[in-house]
Amino acid sequence: MDKTELLALLQPDIEQINETMRSEISQAGNALLEEILEYSLLNEGKRIRPLLTILAARLCAFTRMPEGLAEEDELHPPVNLYRLAAVFEFLHGASLLHDDVIDNAGKRRGRTAANKVWGNSQVILAGDFLHTRAMTMAGTVGGLHALDLIGGATSAMIRAEFQQMLTVKEFNLSEKNYFSVLRGKTGVLIAAACEVGACFAEGSAEHQAALRTYGDALGLAFQVVDDLLDYLGDPKKTGKAIGNDFVEGKLTLPLIHAMKNCENKDFDRIMDLLKGQPADRENHLPEAHGFIEENGGFAYAREGAEALVEAAFESLAVFPDCRSRKILSGLAHYVLTRQK
């Protein structure tokens, strides 16, 4: 399934997700708040997280149906499923708003970051609103189990941010630590998006576990590819400057592997840069890029992303061959090949 076909199949759900988000934002009760939320959320986002909730629910519903009762394309998700799915875009959006304030970001997805348009105080409050609105929607539509899953994922995201700050401070080169941070920052929310959809459709324990595994592997692969794009991507497509992670002193998989497989003198040189000032690291980005390339960091990270996507494929084997399963497989392939 190529990207064009995948997007065509997903477009009706994307439009419904956007309409659901627009409806929720319109009830914020404050004109400035609504303006910030519309600017931040109603853009060209990929909507992967809410799409996963809908696809997981549709896959489980179709799997539970007696054979021949109805065709898969006859299953129309209820409105409440779209509201539940929107929870994950709200939580993701809140984390991005807060991240941009923490990082003093100037750009987000190729345009001026909200904190540079309205200021930190307003953007923090907008992020807080998204958090509270998301939790209210989760509990109202999904019940206590969904609220527990989503609350657990949100807590894990916050812990991962603290863990990442400690990683930078201690120059931790452990891959186990790297993937622990990734799982907290990205994997848990994507896994929860899949599992919540399965729960909504009353999928079996086996199917819920399979979709949780799929989401975890997909989330990790997404972030590894993101770390590759930070060094290798086209800024016109990614909307981000090349080498941000290195400039910020972040130890991502390409750099970790290179530092663990290089000569001592090269290790010491890169470590000196990491212990130095961001401006100095920015001036030596070409050197860092060459170092990672020469020591196999990019190839290693690419192989890791491919292995994670393969694990995502394998987790879907418990489901029948159907359109929703094909789309989920297509999304995994998209994550591996995306350029932004």
Structure write-up:
By secondary structure, this protein is mostly helical. The chain has a single domain, classed as Orthogonal Bundle (Farnesyl Diphosphate Synthase). The chain is 78% helix and 1% strand. The protein has 16 helices and two strands. Strands 1-2 form a two-stranded antiparallel ribbon. α1 (3-25) crosses α16 (323-337), α4 (79-103) runs antiparallel to α7 and α11 packs across α14 (285-294). The model has no long low-confidence stretch (mean pLDDT 92).
Number of strands: 2
Distance between the termini: 19 Å
| Secondary-structure element series | HHHHEEHHHHHHHHHHHH
Helix content: over 70%
- Report the uncertain regions: none
Named CATH architecture: Orthogonal Bundle
Mean pLDDT: 92
CATH superfamily: Farnesyl Diphosphate Synthase
Strand content: under 5%
Give a short account of the largest sheet: 2 strands, antiparallel
Topology:
Layout: H1 3-25, H2 31-41, H3 48-64, H4 79-103, E1 107-108, E2 111-112, H5 114-118, H6 120-170, H7 175-200, H8 205-232, H9 235-238, H10 244-247, H11 253-260, H12 264-275, H13 278-283, H14 285-294, H15 297-315, H16 323-337
Antiparallel strand pairs: 1-2
Helix pairs in contact: 1-4, 1-16, 3-4, 3-7, 3-16, 4-6, 4-7, 6-7, 7-8, 8-15, 8-16, 11-14, 11-15, 15-16
